[in-house]
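Researcher: Re-running this chain for the archive, since the previous output was lost when a drive failed. Same request as before.
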Amino acid sequence: MPTTSTDPSQAEPGKRSRRKEARPGELLDAALDLFVEKGFAATRVEEVAARAGVSKGTLFLYFPSKLELFKAVVRLNIAGRFDEWKLELQTFEGSSSELLRYCFTVWWERIGSTKASGITKLILSEAGNFPEIASFYRQEVIEVGQDLIRCILQRGMASGEFREVDMNYAIYLVLAPMIFLMMWRHSIGMCVPDELGITPEGYIRLQVDNILQGLCVRAQPPSPSTP
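Model: Regenerated structure tokens:
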């Protein structure tokens, strides 16, 4: 009668293969947690490896340095999503006001409300000491994000929905509420009592309303009739 082999040497390769496939994702999840909790300087690769349940040597098989590990975290959680957002922008069928409101909502759902939003706080606090991570973040996140905002504003101006504005300044009208929310969420916001009823969603709605009040073209009042 045939029997099922229980030889560990036969089962082990499959286990090792599954574990190997899981390692990069586990390492990136652990690295995101630690970078947000402790910052770039204070995070040690040994801690990342330990939290992911692997050795430091295993970590270096996938990421040759802490800088490369950080870059991979940013690409997975933020920079790697820009192609998806560009496609959504290009295929959006509503008005530019609706598009701007939609972008704020989607940004909050996919980035702002997640642990990845803590990366912005890390960059703002440590960029001066680590110019290499500042340069990387500027090229792969800031500049690409600004281009997306610029496209939204240009879309509205081209259709006559938005008034002509200086684009170099206008993009920061959109960015400022996002940056504030990310800093707030990972700093003093943790101390705000729940009973105040202040929510990120409410803040976003008010900020978008304010931005659109300034951007949207208003009908000009009729000229006074001359006697």
